[in-house]
């Protein structure tokens, strides 16, 4: 067989296509088998780790299920205006997120914040249903101390899907969403448009399905320069939310982790929660 220029070109093209196919399969397999490592970035704390915060707090270990321990912090103030049940993002642990929660304590709110399973001191097997069940358990824990119209649900990034779920199944005072998504599937499709994401993903967090059943006031904050959750995903969520209940606040130039640096965010929080 003679190796003409045409034959050599075909062989090179075949090799390139083979490599591309292998890469496609490898990336697809990683999305399926390693998605928990891609989605969730917990840091683990020793069980005797001592938190250090400026605000007074109570540390709790809740038992929503057998072989599960949920570590939580309950910040308390004198004569609180209410309580904020805060669901944090996909990275870190309470040593970081507790400090962020203190921003709301300074506005005279009690704040309850939990670490998800495998985060910080929390233990147990992770699953989407586990997120929802543990969140409902924390909500019911607060109902023993507060009336439901005193509970504000606050979700940030990953936590917005959990807060949406709770708000759709309960009757809190209000729902605040910082950098939310239409669904995790929507964000994954944006990042990996050439893959059959719906078949590969084990986690959906369908905020779009939950938010239509929310009956309390909803405030959405999203930055136009968010490189983690596209601004367009939050806009899609707004478009399916109950229009008469929803306020969508655009933070021009805001990223994923810096909305608190913008005056429009801080002023809006004051309007929602008070000084």
Description:
The protein is α/β, with parallel strands linked by helices. The chain folds into 2 domains: 1-33; 43-273, Alpha/Beta hydrolase fold, catalytic domain (Rossmann fold), CATH 3.40.50. It is built from 10 helices and 10 strands. Strands 2-3-6-4-7-8-9-10 form an 8-stranded mixed sheet, sandwiched between helices. α4 (128-143) crosses α5 (158-169). 33% of the residues are buried. The model has no long low-confidence stretch (mean pLDDT 90).
List keywords for this structure.
275 residues; alpha/beta; Rossmann fold; eight-stranded mixed sheet; two-stranded parallel ribbon; 10 helices; 41% helix; 18% strand
Summarize the structure.
By secondary structure, the protein is α/β, with parallel strands linked by helices. It contains 10 helices and 10 strands.
Task: Indicate the CATH architecture of the largest domain.
Answer: 3-Layer(aba) Sandwich
CATH topology group of the largest domain: Rossmann fold
How many DSSP E strands? 10
Shape: globular
Largest sheet: 8 strands, mixed
Number of domains: 2
Nearest-angstrom radius of gyration? 22 Å
The string of secondary-structure elements, in order, is HHEEEEEHEHEHEHHHEHEH
